[in-house]
Specification:
about 325 residues; alpha/beta; Nucleotidyltransferase, domain 5; 5-stranded mixed sheet; binds adenosine-5'-triphosphate; binds fe (ii) ion
Length: about 325
């Protein structure tokens, strides 16, 4: 029996989750947003610093526990924006010292995959599409491997940049989704799949040119963007399913909130006899519960840092999914 607290702070969200024996007791978060313009890392970090105490105490109250009930503190070690990650690790170290409890560093991307297992997926291929990350990940031969990824922009950042061009604030995904709904005409856009990977920067330039030409409606551009880019994601996810022989597709990351992307994934899965798993929104987007959830699994296997070891623990802004030593399986 263990109660593990998890801290998420890789980007715009500061979240704290509390998990006991694989059950989520609390999942509190606050997200930095803007009316116009994108995310400024130092501003997001400031947001985290200002909100962390309240989120922490709200999480404890929500879980119905007190500080001394916590057995370990896990935190997102990477990948992510350095100023944001630093707020998380600082807070984790502070709590560890105050409560005299060990730390468990967690990889953010793998946490997205592991929490997805609450949906009863057993050994899925995950299509992970968030702001900074676009990866197709699956566990294979002792590691979480990347079967395909973006060669440049994360699909969420790509969508947010396009939304900014249209005058929307951050996050842009929901605005674009709305504009794309209804009766729309498809405008031809570049379709860029290279092997198992995708590339988005050329499509962004193309969209910018089309928008600036004033020949196309915002709605048609949003619709065409979604149809094209989501088809690229579905194609590469399907190839990963075929390559690994797995029969489960799990969605992760904020872009997976998009109902059209979900629909396209469902059609593909139905056609090939695979099963689609879509976690509820609160664990799909960045959240502390997923960090606590994987943190607890690792802690139970004896992976933890205490005393002097903690001094050497640092953030890993560019940590790759396949770099992680999976000692807990
Ligand atoms: P990371 O996991 O890379 O640190 P993040 O902090 O940006 O990323 P999430 O909260 O998983 O992560 O995702 C946020 C992204 O999801 C934003 O880019 C946002 O525009 C996008 N998004 C949210 N809802 C939708 C939607 N309905 N359609 C498309 N994109 C969406
Ligand atoms: Fe994420």
């Amino acid at each position: 029996m263990a109660i593990v607290l998890g801290i998420e702070s890789t980007a715009h969200t500061f979240g704290i989750g509390i998990v006991k024996n694989g059950k989520i007791l609390a999942n509190i978060k606050k997200t930095y947003t803007t009316e116009t313009g994108g995310i400024i890392p130092s501003e997001a970090a400031k947001h985290h610093k200002e909100n962390k105490e309240k989120i922490y105490f709200d999480a404890l109250a929500n879980a119905g526990i007190v500080e001394k009930d916590i057995d370990a503190i896990s935190f997102s070690q990477g990948p992510g924006l350095s100023p944001c990650l630093l707020e998380g690790i600082r807070f984790a170290k502070e709590l560890s010292e105050k409560l005299k409890k060990p730390l468990v560093p967690v990889n953010h991307c793998i946490a997205h995959l592991e929490i997805g297992k609450l949906t009863n997926a057993e050994d899925p291929v995950m299509l992970y599409t968030s702001g900074a990350n676009t990866q197709i990940i699956a566990y294979s031969s002792g590691k979480y491997r990347i079967f395909g990824e973006t060669l440049d922009l994360g699909v969420g950042n790509f969508i947010d940049t396009f939304a900014r061009l249209l005058g929307a604030g951050f996050p842009g995904g929901p605005v674009i989704q709305k504009l794309a709904e209804g009766k729309r005409s498809y405008i031809e856009l570049p379709y860029v799949v290279k092997g198992m990977d995708i590339s988005l920067s050329g499509i962004l330039t193309n969209l910018q040119q089309k928008f600036n030409s004033k020949k196309y409606s915002k709605e048609d551009l949003c619709y065409s963007m979604q149809e094209t880019v989501f088809a690229m994601l579905v194609e590469t996810a399907e190839r990963a399913l075929a390559h690994t022989g797995k029969r489960e597709l799990l969605l992760g990351g904020g872009v997976a909130c998009n109902s059209r992307l979900q629909e396209m994934c469902r059609i593909m899965c139905d056609e090939r006899g695979a099963k689609l798993f879509v976690p509820p929104r609160e664990v799909l987007v960045d959240n502390g519960a997923m960090i606590a959830f994987l943190g607890e699994i690792m802690f139970q296997k004896g992976i933890k840092f205490s005393g002097k070891e903690i001094e050497n623990l640092d953030i890993k802004p560019r940590q790759r999914t396949d770099e992680v030593e999976v000692e807990w399986k």
